[in-house]
Amino acid sequence: MAITYEHIKTCKQTGARLGKVHTPHGTFDTPAFMPVGTLATVKTMSPEELESMGAGMILSNTYHLWLRPGSDIVEEAGGLHKFMNWKGSILTDSGGFQVFSLSDLRKIKEEGVHFRNHISGEKLFLSPEKAMHIQNQLGADIMMAFDECPPYPAEHKYMKDSVERTSRWAERCLSAHQRPHDQGLFGIVQGGEYEDLRKQSARDLTSLDFPGYAIGGLSVGEPKDVMNRVLESTTPLLPTEKPRYLMGVGSPDSLVDGAIRGIDMFDCVLPTRIARNGTCMTSNGRLVVRNAKFARDFGPIDENCDCYTCRNYSKAYIRHLVKANETFGFRLTTYHNLYFLLKLMRQVREAIKEDRLGDFREEFFEQYGFNKP
Ligand SMILES: CC(C)(C)OC(=O)NCc1c[nH]c2nc(N)[nH]c(=O)c12
Ligand SMILES: [Zn+2]
């Protein structure tokens, strides 16, 4: 379990904590945002560009890479880092979530999940052991346990059965984990909006002594105050000397609010996904660059941004590229959005250092427009 967390300090104004995560492929500061590279690429970005904007760890996905190109090929290439030429750290999600969100026709049994390949339709089966085998072939620094992420909302009875199975699956993942010294396996706390089930899931998983813990099953459509309430009751149950990872989150406001509630790691497809339809995150809120009003606007996407896109290109030019479906246009919006979130996390870490994350939240929310009714 060569993943270690170094706690540096806790913000005096909030519950946020400043830290570092050490992996065999380097160290990154937390709270951290991790760009998502599902198919072994953060869409349209080169590894050099990701490194230049300060990305320390990126995500890839077990289920997707198992299907395409096949985890055997990645293994023969020498593992995911070599295959995609990424020198930093990698986390692979276990595929459980993707199975539940991508394919219908699925049957959840104790031994694992039967479902159809979302591309070819062929019958497939994933189990904790299979997910661990694939992740060991990919060779990520951090691997995720095979869990069920039930849809929102779910009945308490269903959620209880699901949490108990997810805990049994977590135990099976630990025993199937072949390389504990080079790869850290994180447990995933589930339980939906039910505090008693979140406590049960956290208790089960912390008794298994994982090197880090994720909070799953959030950002699945529940209101923000439900997410914040679940975080407030769940993070205190997790060990303070290990990383806490909130999966699938998120929007700029959720990143700040998650950090305030003690989260160290975040991932979300939002910045890269909305970039590909020409939507940008800016310090004054979202901006849809293909909007006609920018046709003759020769200023940058964001006056307060010093990224490559904002230093060199205008809204008019990027609008033209995006409307013409030019790949370079999506590269520019993607670069800016990732830079924006990575810079936001730098500002969050700075605010923790100066014990003023609560003040920073007010300023940032006001300017971005989150407080608008
Ligand atoms: C709908 C979005 C993707 C925004 O969030 C979630 O679904 N959030 C939950 C989530 C994201 N990724 C996960 N991986 C795993 N193993 N388990 C999970 O619960 C999740
Ligand atoms: Zn920019």
Explained architecture:
The longest helix has 27 residues, at 327-353. By secondary structure, this protein is α/β, with parallel strands linked by helices. It is 41% helix and 18% strand. The chain starts with a strand and ends in a 5-residue tail after the last helix. The mean pLDDT is 96. The strands form four sheets. It has an eight-stranded parallel β-sheet with strand order 4-14-13-12-11-10-6-5. It has a three-stranded antiparallel β-sheet with strand order 1-2-3. The protein has helices spanning 47-52, 62-67, 71-76, 80-84, 96-102, 128-138, 156-176, 195-206, 224-234, 252-260, 270-275, 308-312, 315-323, 327-353, 357-368, and strands at 4-10, 17-23, 26-30, 32-34, 57-61, 89-93, 107-108, 113-116, 123-126, 142-144, 184-189, 212-215, 244-246, 265-267, 279-282, 285-288. It contains 15 helices and 16 strands. The structure holds ligand BPQ and zinc ion (ZN). The site of the ligand CC(C)(C)OC(=O)NCc1c[nH]c2nc(N)[nH]c(=O)c12 has 15 residues, from helix 5.
Number of DSSP-assigned strands: 16
How many helices? The count is: 15
Report the average pLDDT across residues.
96
Which spans of ≥5 residues are poorly predicted at pLDDT below 50?
Answer: none
Which ligands are bound?
A: the ligand CC(C)(C)OC(=O)NCc1c[nH]c2nc(N)[nH]c(=O)c12, zinc ion
Rg result: 20 Å
Largest sheet, order of strands side by side? 4-14-13-12-11-10-6-5
Give the biggest beta sheet.
8 strands, parallel
Structural class, please?
alpha/beta
Helix content: 40-55%
Distance between the termini: 46 Å
Outline? globular
